UniProtKB/TrEMBL annotation:
Leader sequence segment: 1-22
Lineage: Bacteria, Bacillati, Bacillota, Bacilli, Bacillales
Protein name stated in the entry: Lipoprotein
Keywords noted in UniProt: Signal
Keyword Signal: yes
Length: 227
C-alpha cells in the first residue's frame, strides 16, 4: 500500500455528475475532528488494545449515502463511512492516531492516522529488524479472519526473505475465471501501537501480493499459509 498522504480535496472522488452540482461520489475513508483530518489505514492494525486511550468523541455525521452535492464542506465530526454516534478513541501516547471499534479488523479496531502523521505503510518502510512476531490468517467470507499460526525465530526470518525475494510483475493477471483467489493476511508486529498488515493471494496458479505493485511469490511460501 502506498503511504497515505491525501490532500483535503481528495476527500471525494467524482464518478458521475448530475444536475445542480450533484454527483455519485466515492469517498475515501476519513474522520474530521476539530482541525485534523484522519484517514483509514488499510495496511495497519492496532497492535494491542492496551493502546486504546480515552474517548475523544462521537461521529456527528456520516457523509457517504447522505451527501451528493460536490460543494459540500467537510466539517468537524464528519466521517465517510462511520455511522452517527460511533465512538472515537485516542491512542495512548500518539496524538496523530485515533481508533474506532470494528469487528471486521483482526484486533477489533480500525486505525485512522492524521494526514501528516509521519507513519509509513509501504512494505519497504517496515523496520524488518524490529519485528517481534508474525501472525498469519486466512480470510473466510462471512467469518472474516481465521487464525492459522504465529511465526517466531527462524521461521519468521525465512518468511520475510520470501517476501523480499518476490518478483515484481505489473502485468500479471490473476486467474479469476472460476472463483475468487484465496486470501491470506499476515501481520508484522513491532514495538508500538501499529502492526503492519498485508495480504497474500492464491489464484490456483501463483501466490502473489502487493507491496507496491503486483509481486509473484515463490511456492515456498505455501507451508506458512496452510493449517
Amino acid at each position: 500500500m502506498k503511504k497515505i498522504i491525501v490532500l483535503f480535496s481528495m476527500f471525494l472522488l467524482l464518478t458521475a455528475c448530475g444536475p445542480a452540482g450533484n454527483a455519485i461520489i466515492e469517498w475515501v475513508d476519513f474522520i474530521v475532528w476539530k482541525d485534523t483530518h484522519y484517514y483509514g489505514i488499510y495496511s495497519g492494525e492496532l497492535s494491542d488494545d492496551t493502546y486504546v486511550g480515552d474517548k475523544l468523541g462521537k461521529v456527528k455525521f456520516k457523509v457517504a449515502d447522505n451527501i451528493t452535492n460536490t460543494n459540500y464542506k467537510i466539517k468537524h465530526g464528519d466521517a465517510a463511512f462511520l455511522e452517527k454516534g460511533t465512538q472515537i478513541y485516542k491512542v495512548k501516547g500518539f496524538s496523530d492516531l485515533i481508533v474506532v471499534k470494528d469487528s471486521s479488523h483482526i484486533n477489533q479496531y480500525r486505525v485512522f492516522a492524521a494526514n501528516e502523521s509521519g507513519f509509513d505503510w509501504h512494505f519497504k518502510d517496515v523496520p524488518l529488524e524490529e519485528i517481534t512476531k508474525i501472525l498469519i490468517y486466512k480470510f473466510v467470507p462471512g467469518e472474516n479472519h481465521q487464525f492459522i499460526r504465529e511465526l517466531k525465530s527462524q521461521d519468521m526470518k525465512v518468511f520475510i526473505e520470501l517476501l523480499k525475494d518476490s518478483k515484481e510483475d505489473e502485468n500479471y493477471q490473476p486467474n479469476t475465471f472460476e472463483k475468487d483467489p484465496t486470501t491470506y493476511t499476515f501481520v508484522l508486529y513491532v514495538d508500538g501501537p501499529i502492526a503492519y498488515k498485508y495480504d497474500i493471494h492464491f489464484d490456483e496458479r501463483n501466490y502473489y501480493w502487493h507491496p507496491w505493485s503486483t509481486n509473484i511469490l515463490s511456492e515456498e511460501i505455501e507451508p506458512f499459509l496452510k493449517n
